[in-house]
Amino acid sequence: MVRRRERGLSLIELMVVMTILMILALLTVPLGGGWVRNTHLNHAHDVLMEGYATARVLALRNTANVSGKAVAATLRVNGTSLSVGHPDPDDGTKVVTLWSGQVEADTTVTLGDAASCAVPNTVDLTANGLPTDLGCLNYTLTIKGGPSESGTLQ
User: Mind listing the pLDDT tens digit for each residue in 32-79?
Assistant: First the structure.
């Protein structure tokens, strides 16, 4: 009688492989969370830089037709939303929004602070593209339960 060799894995071998795979999966979960938080931080930085660049371009175009140190464009931050606009030529008390951006819900963007900026979370630019208050150029990006970044808009 010819004996055939059995093929395949035993139950013990399968359990050992499954255990090793589960341990590897558990080790990658914290790394994945850190990667997501860093991605959110980088996205917030990119949105803030895009908003500031858009505000400078708008100020230099001077679509509000202002002169001197009057505000030609404004970058505003409200928690997770950013917006860029200029004064309404017909009604100077209103702002016409031309650009808006959004960061992730776990991310907070802050411009300036009460000590260094007359109007926190707002950067006003003149028709020359220069800020009216240099203290408002300082920013902080904060991720809940993660890293934060501080810097100065340039």
Answer: 888 888 899 999 999 999 999 999 999 999 887 888 889 999 999 998
- The closest alpha carbon to 145, from 106, 96, 105, belongs to 106
Structure tokens at 53: 């660049």
Residue 138's CATH number: 3.55.40
The verdict on residue 142 lying in a domain is yes
- Provide CB contacts within 8 A for 68, sequence distance 6+: 126, 127
Q: Which residue has the tokens 């850190």?
A: 34
CB atoms within 10 A of CB 7: 5
What range defines the domain where residue 59 resides? 11-152
Query: How far is Cα 6 from Cα 24, in angstroms, rounded to an integer?
Result: 30
In angstroms, rounded to a whole number, what is the distance separating the alpha carbons of residues 151 and 61?
26
Please state whether the predicted TM-score (pTM) of the whole model is above 0.85: no
Q: Which helix (H) or strand (E) holds 66?
A: none
34-to-24, 99, 107 alpha-carbon distances in Å: 17, 30, 14
Of the candidates 76, 88, 84, 70, the residue with the CA atom closest to the CA atom of residue 127: 70
